[in-house]
Amino acid sequence: MLLYHCARNLLMKLGSTVIKSVINLCKKVLGKTRKSQSKPPSFEQPNILSRDQHPVSRKHISHNALKVLYRLNKGGYDAYLVGGGVRDILLGLAPKDFDIATNATPEQIKALFRNCRLIGRRFRLAHIVFGREIIEVATFRGHHENSEEKNCQKTSKQSEHGMLLRDNIYGTIEEDAERRDFTINALYYSAKDFKVYDFANGVADVYAKQIRLIGDPETRYREDPVRMLRAIRFATKLDMNIHADTKAPIKSLAPLMANIPPARMFEEFLKLFMSGKAGENFQQLRDYNLFQFFFPAVEQQLNHQSHAYLADFIKLAMKNTDHRVNNDQRVTPAFLFAAMLWYPMQEHIQRLNSETQLTPQDAFFAALSEVMSEQQRSIAIPKRFQAVMKDIWILQDKLSRREGKRAFKALEHPKFRAGYDFLLLRAEIESASNQDNQQPTALQELAKWWSDFQHSNADTQQFMVKSIGQNRSGSRRTRKRRKPRTQSSGSEA
Hints:
Largest sheet: 8 strands, mixed
Strand content: 5-15%
Strand order of the largest sheet: 1-10-9-2-3-6-5-4
CATH topology of the largest domain: cca-adding enzyme, domain 2
CATH superfamily of the largest domain: cca-adding enzyme, domain 2
């Protein structure tokens, strides 16, 4: 810092333009020095990038987000675009979410916006609703060590493992930056002076493509174990590497994920597996021993190699999902859930068939109840998705029964397309594992039949169904008809 102050005092007599240039140069030099020495950044003295030093512009920011920033500023509050919105613009990406940080409390925010709703207990947030777009506004977070001094026991609470159960301690922008998870998310853009405030050398990490936690990694993971998932998600989403210090404790702290509520795990599932990076995230989660907390039954089968097709089946399902997401096609989490739990479901059915005298239908529903009950302990799958999963699985049996009117009824089923796509997935896996055999498997033939059937005209469809009936009847043994028994005259009384 001595170099900085000497340069500043020496150049006081020079023009303001020269002063700014030299000061910025000193900051850059000092910033590089700090980085090379791996010293923690100073949150009291952030790097400030003027308008000509960064690409962030109002044209990149949602009109509604700008509205919120301007109204908060007009109301006498500080307000900044923060986190992913600033980070993505620096990377040349189009931000999808625009989060705002301010020194206004949630109640003060609500007083400014009629279209505001307050949400959350763990983190008190304000959502400003503009039709389909929601701008999330958070009050600057403070340090928990000050909670007792401020008599804030009701707003701050931690578990015995160090996890934050309630975090409504408010503070300054400097404290807020220090409380953020990764350096690349501790970037603040002001609509008043058009400057970017970098509190944790985040700009350098953005351009170095590096995911780095702010503070001690173990402490930060204990505060919120989901940060382990976020590190992976950001790394795959942004094509970045996780810093060595940030990834070092993940495997040892992975058991902390058992404390995360199933409802929150569902939200994280959507972020990890429905964003176009499902395949990469799946591999990373398994490498860091984190996948088991999403699908414990699947992880067990993968480790024991219970099914030859399981790993390839999951990867293919994720590949297809990623393809649809990246091509802006409609996707449903239910399909991926159905793929994940297909083999655990089959295992339960086989066990019930061997241990009980249940009918196939009863065995299916008993297995369905067991599988979903076990899975709900890890991920709270909403009932609307459970219903679609059930339909997809039931259709696998229905699609194999094509005689008479059954094929036409299956074709009219509301979830036929999902069930058919699932059948194609199963057939493709068998095909890949059956390359040495020139003859198609029964599943492959079934998938081809349905591909032809749904694209044929009515006459051809009738012929295809009749052909199925003839083949079945030809293979059956003809049964002798019993002659009718003649009634004796004595029995008519």
